[in-house]
Design goal:
Layout (H helix, E strand, L loop, with lengths): L4 E6 L5 H15 L3 E6 L6 H4 L5 H11 L5 H6 L2 E7 L7 H8 L2 H6 L6 E8 L6 H15 L2 E2 L19 E3 L9 H28 L1
Parallel strand pairs: 1-2, 1-3, 3-4, 4-5, 4-6
Helix pairs in contact: 1-8
């Protein structure tokens, strides 16, 4: 059986969601996956970015570390894991723009049967992490992915995260994810890899 391929496509402004993405990548790689980490790009002008201190500098640094996600990445992957900071309780426009560009694959049915999962970060404790995660299930369903929640399938979920996906709270200070948050992220990476591998084996057996 070929190696399981996992795409982690995320948007991050201050590095909090990026840290969760890296935790998920660690878990996926530990489970034997080949991982592509991709950061969605800004859709606003540098003039708009200048209103938020450090935004452009952080974006430039992350863009140097990660390629932008592409439709080819989604087609390549056996599992697609999406991450975003919450924007008014829902997905960021930057990551949504990437998803909106997958219509060509959708119409051809090329994403049907892949594993899908989500994660997010918020600035405040009740800032919409669960509503954001649940809202991200909608495009996964439309694209034909098989949604893989974290559930309470690991002891780490009783300390952090949500049953819908890994999460972190930055307390309006870009506070990095806690050790417990990252435990959930690593478990999520492992879980989605194992499910994707099983789906891939089933598809191969069907011929």
């Amino acid at each position: 059986m070929a190696e399981t391929r996992v795409l982690i496509a995320f948007y991050s402004r201050t590095g909090v969601t990026e840290a969760l993405a890296r935790g998920i990548a660690e878990g996926a790689e530990a489970a034997g996956a080949e991982v592509r980490l991709r950061r969605a790009r800004e859709i606003v002008s540098p003039e708009i970015m200048a209103y938020a201190k450090g935004w452009k500098e952080a974006a430039d640094a992350m863009n140097a570390r990660y390629e932008a996600p592409s439709a080819a990445d989604a087609e390549w992957a056996d599992a697609i894991v999406l991450g975003t900071p919450t924007r008014f309780g829902a997905i960021s426009s930057e990551l949504k723009a990437y998803l909106d560009g997958l219509g060509g694959l959708w119409v051809q049915g090329k994403l049907n049967g892949k594993a899908g999962a989500v994660f997010c970060s918020t600035s405040t404790t009740h800032g919409g992490n669960e509503s954001t995660l649940l809202s991200m299930y909608n495009p996964l369903a439309h694209l034909g992915l098989i949604i893989v929640p974290t559930g309470y399938a690991d002891p780490s979920l009783y300390k952090a995260g949500t049953p819908y996906g890994a999460s972190a709270v930055s307390h309006n200070q870009a506070t990095p994810p806690t050790a417990e948050d990252l435990d959930v992220a690593r478990f999520q990476g492992k879980r989605v890899t194992e499910v994707a591998a099983a789906l891939k084996a089933y598809a191969a057996a069907k011929g």
